[in-house]
């Protein structure tokens, strides 16, 4: 896989959009590192850098303001489908997220969306289990003080 065309697939709300403005900084079978500008700018959020950990099933993003100050780290639980015929990588957001603030506070969010997606049959029970297992692995890295091993690819 060499610099695939990236797509972000969301389950809630259901959408699949090309990340045509993301810049791939590096790419191999294990990781893709990108820089980007906010798709939906917020008061502070301006741009960031992300590392897709493909084998682990999560994405770690550094969210920054316009002055390049760290707002927080945002970690998405993900899955992906690579289509070699057109070099397309569809990254699916598996709903559970972790936010890590500069002071070290850790917040797990959107677990209720997993339940909603399961009840509406937008995801399977296997996908729910996979999402929770990946979340558990990520939280173990964070709580053991080893988050630096992930963010080192982005700093």
Largest sheet: 9 strands, mixed
Query: Percent of residues in beta strands?
Result: 35-45%
Morphology call: globular
Oligomer classification: single chain
Explain what you see.
- The protein is α+β, with helices and mostly antiparallel strands and 155 residues long.
- Helices cover 21% and strands 43% of the residues.
- The protein is built from 3 helices and 9 strands; from the N terminus they run βββββββββααα.
- Strands 1, 2, 3, 4, 5, 6, 7, 8 and 9 form a 9-stranded mixed β-sheet that branches.
- It is globular, with a radius of gyration of 15 Å.
Task: Describe the secondary structure blueprint for this structure.
Layout: E1 5-10, E2 15-18, E3 23-27, E4 31-37, E5 47-53, E6 58-64, E7 70-83, E8 88-100, E9 106-109, H1 111-119, H2 125-143, H3 148-151
Parallel strand pairs: 1-8
Antiparallel strand pairs: 1-2, 3-4, 4-5, 5-6, 6-7, 7-8, 8-9
What's this, in brief?
The chain is of the alpha+beta class and 155 residues long. It has helices at residues 111-119, 125-143, 148-151, and strands at residues 5-10, 15-18, 23-27, 31-37, 47-53, 58-64, 70-83, 88-100, 106-109. Strands 1, 2, 3, 4, 5, 6, 7, 8 and 9 form a 9-stranded mixed β-sheet that branches.
